[in-house]
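Working notes for the structural subgroup meeting. M.R. asked for a predicted model of this chain before we commit to crystallization trials. I am recording the input and output together here so anyone reviewing the notebook later can reproduce the run.

Input as submitted:
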Amino acid sequence: MHRHIIDLFAGPGGWSEGLRRLGHTDTGLEIDAAACATRAAAGHRTIRTDVAAYPTAPLVGKVSGLIGSPPCQTFSAAGLHAGADDIALCRQALDDLAAGRDTRTALRAECTDPRSLLVVEPLRFALDTRPNWITLEEVPAVAPLFAHTARILRTLGYSAWVGILNAADFGIPQTRRRAFLIASRTQEVTPPLPTHARTPEPESLFGPGRAAWVTMADALDLTAGAVVTRGEHHTGGNRFTTTGPAWALTGRARSWKLRPADQPTAERELDATEAGALQDFPARYPWAGSRTKQFEQIGNAIPPGLAAAVLRTVLESARLSLVVAA
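Returned structure, recorded in token form:
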């Protein structure tokens, strides 16, 4: 029987592109029309659906890997932090699912933001389909819920790791910090080893040191300059230099202004292709929808290179295990 990799809340394809780099494909579950259009144009298999309503019964015995990046708006520092009020309800939903009780509907009605409870969906799918491995990603505020999920998975025989990874440490031109859960029921899991560092490391007896973080200027072939993050305002805003990685992208990056050092008055907006490159997507990635929807997709996606680094910890080790067993 053919087994599938299922990508919950698949977005425009960050995890899918990471899998593609490793020679694998997935089936994404995604509700947003623009993200589904982007995925289709990029050649990623997609089912347009509400993950919370999608039945797991047809997937039993057919899932090898489970990926999930639940919507982060309620927990994000850039949002209204409604998710912080819902942490206890999310933890209760996780415990109830583990005990065989589906209380999602009742608990959702109690949440400050009903979207908060989407963070429990990966456990629902994991409990019902028992994949060989699981990788989850969210904003750092969700790390305690990932840790709770990991404790439940360990009772089912999974090895699990939860921690924070910085995209810049993996060659992504962006200091994006995210919480991850990596789990496997076929092997011990460990986090991916960083390949880059803020300061380049010299070669040692153990091999070459880590390379320097990739700068925004290098990634976009820009001259040195600055980015002004004006948000929705015409004046003011914070700024950072292009001689280091970009700050973490959100949908608000559509308002970023690029200002070359040698032409400080030649200010222009960051375009979607450039934002996609800072998120490590291919230069011609087919972003669909309005400019606002394109930047929303880019900001919500996991950088494919970071996704590949995380996925490699479960996919390549699993392949080695099969070779040894043979």
